[in-house]
Amino acid sequence: MKAYVFPGQGAQFVGMGKDLYDSHPLAKEMFERANEILGFRITDLMFAGNDEDLRQTRVTQPAIFLHSVILAATLPDFQPDMVAGHSLGEFSALVANKALSFEDGLNLVYARAVAMQKACEAEPSTMAAILGLDDTTVEEILAGIDEIVVPANYNSPGQLVISGSLRGIELACDALKAAGAKRALPLKVGGAFHSPLMEPARIELAAAIEATTINTPVCPVYQNVDAKPYSDPALIKANLVAQLTSPVRWTQIVQHMVADGATTIIELGPGMVLQGLARKIAPEIESMGF
Predict the structure, then answer these.
(1) Which residues contact 230 (CB under 8 A, 6 or more apart)?
(2) CATH says 125-186 is which class?
């Protein structure tokens, strides 16, 4: 069984998607449609911009979404048995899986990106990658810190990203290194994604999601909030809203996909992050990407 997975923020690079645009008429049509919907030429930033422009959340998220869903649309044998997306990638997965239209998916992703960027600018915050400690130890240490700092991305065994206030991340990194973490590395991100600090963005996005039609997907989508498969549109909507302030349970998603019969995990989008994580989580199955 084939499980297709879609990356989130951080996978972007200048030049992403240009080969698709140049070589595939459908891809060119979809990219140009995206330029019209967004009201600016995101393709210029993707194909020939600079790293700083591409790192802006309002650009990064729709750029990665477009690369991912256009890859899926132009792949001749795209027939998923199950799908999942890391954070932002969940929206890519839903469009590829026909639960969301391309236009609605792009509008939601852009609304999400703008809301998250506003929340980040309102209160400075950040994230850090913690390597070499088990999840339970990290959770227990974070619970003892009197600042906003929480688990954000359960990426693979021994790799957990935390999210919170600047002071919270500083205190947590010191405490986690003292507890034996191999690395506690602050990340160059816009703010504390998947934390309570995203509550203003969650409220804003909830209204947009509620006003959007979500259909029954072709196959189950394994959602970030609890790593379980969903096909009910109402539950998918609720989980998309909750996702902004909840951790991404990627380790558990891959484990559940494998337990449910996945034999190949295929990443669609820029970079190779998810296939690398899959090899750490489930080395017994094949992992690849486009």
Answers:
(1) 220, 221, 222, 223, 236, 239
(2) alpha beta
For residue 149, CA distances in Å to 133, 168, 189, 244, 288 come to 16, 5, 15, 15, 33
Residue 10 has pLDDT above 90, yes or no: no
Active site residue 163: no
CATH 3.30.70.250 range(s) for the chain read 125-186
**Is 231 an active-site residue?**
no
Domain 2-121+196-289 in CATH 3.40.50.1760? The answer is: no
Predicted structure pTM score: 0.95
- Marked catalytic residue, from 68, 92, 165, 194: 194
Q: Where in the chain is the domain with CATH 3.40.366.10?
A: 2-121+196-289
Choosing from 68, 87, 156, 246, the catalytic residue is 87
Q: What pLDDT, on the 0 to 100 scale, is given for residue 188?
A: 80
Give every CB contact of residue 45 below 8 A, 6+ residues apart in sequence: 53, 54, 59, 63
